[in-house]
Automatic annotation (TrEMBL):
Organism, as annotated: Punica granatum
Domain Reverse transcriptase: 5-103
Stored CDD domains: RT_LTR (cd01647)
InterPro entries per record: DNA/RNA_pol_sf, Rev_trsase/Diguanyl_cyclase, RNA-dir_DNA_polymerase, RT_dom
SUPFAM superfamilies: DNA/RNA polymerases
Protein name as catalogued: Reverse transcriptase domain-containing protein
Pfam families: RVT_1
Length: 135
């Protein structure tokens, strides 16, 4: 967080007056600011070797040997900018993964079936009245 912006996060408790050293995610623009930072740090890798959306990252490759190279580049970049991953949320070596309500795999990006189950199982309207009520 910029030094001049730290004062804007000041809060008072019974133990004293404090301000944040880093941007808390509760701030209105924190998500957009973080995404902009990720795009800045990983711009040359995005849409080729990795995908980044806020705090979700996917390292991808067509060949297994390339995947290790891509992971190494990603880890080197994370280390360079002193970013850390939550190991409990990391998964390695999978061919598909749920991300933001979609399934990302070697086939591309597909809708997660659980998310559209209600729509798929909806009975077909049989009368004009049912069509109108649906619309």
């Amino acid at each position: 967080m910029a030094e001049e912006d730290k004062i804007k996060t000041t809060f008072i408790t019974m133990w004293g007056t404090f301000c944040y050293e880093v941007m808390p995610f509760g701030l209105k623009n924190a998500g957009a600011t973080y995404q902009r930072a990720m795009v800045t740090l990983f711009h040359d890798m995005m849409h080729k070797e990795i995908e980044v959306y806020v705090d979700d990252m996917i390292a991808k490759s067509k060949e297994g040997e390339d995947h290790l190279v891509n992971l190494k580049r990603l880890f080197d970049r994370l280390k360079k900018y002193k970013l850390r991953l939550n190991s409990a949320k990391c998964t390695f070596g999978v061919k598909s993964r749920k991300l933001l309500g979609f399934v990302v795999s070697e086939n591309g990006i597909e809708v997660e079936l659980d998310k559209v189950k209600a729509i798929v199982e909806l009975p077909l309207p049989l009368t004009v009245r049912e069509v109108r009520s649906f619309l």
